[in-house]
Amino acid sequence: MLTLDPGSLSHRERYFLLIGSIVPRPIAFVSTVSSRGKTNVAPFSYFNGVSSSPPLLSVAIGSRAGKPKDSWRNIEETGEFVVNVVPEEIFEKMVAASADFPPEISEFDETGLTPVPSERITPPRVAESPIQLECVLHELVKLGDSESPTALVIGEVVLAHVRDGLYLEQGHIDPEKLRAIGRMGRQDYVRTRDRFERKRPRT
Ligand SMILES: Cc1cc2nc3c(=O)[nH]c(=O)nc-3n(C[C@H](O)[C@H](O)[C@H](O)COP(=O)(O)O)c2cc1C
User: Does this model's pTM top 0.90?
Assistant: First the structure.
């Protein structure tokens, strides 16, 4: 067994250790709008569900050269964001949207993705995404040091949009039709086509 003390690793090595160990990770394709009205969409895989009642999810957004990424700044300014689920069909556009565009450039224009108005909040949804979760900021926790700060964004889902045919019954989503993509370590991804069922034991 190799024993690693994170304190003795570089930032990059810690990053690769975590993203290679915590796999597969779901991807939140987060759409936001700045206080000046400029739209933004970017992927984040430090993403998970937190609580069902109330329906909370978390996204951890890092920084660039010590400054909050655009999505973090927009969420802090407006208190709103949409989590769009990423299926195989929009995989390449999701990757394209992760490039370091300056705040005055909208990734919607750069990728050709279609913004569609949300119903409860200002940031648009991504029309091509089969599940879009309208969220309001519940809490933003600042973590890390001033060199590489991270925002743990906890959002409450105030409205969910699910494409026709995906919603089965009683909240169930058809994974076969959803075809969500997950993130692995390095630059690797995983499809969600290889699934198996196993019931939990009853005691
Ligand atoms: C699949 C994928 C997952 C990513 N996950 C994260 C993440 O969890 N946290 C983060 O800070 N950046 C993550 N990134 C990088 C951001 O998407 C990238 O820095 C983007 O430019 C941020 O955009 P923004 O400045 O418009 O917010 C990820 C990129 C990809 C392609």
Answer: yes
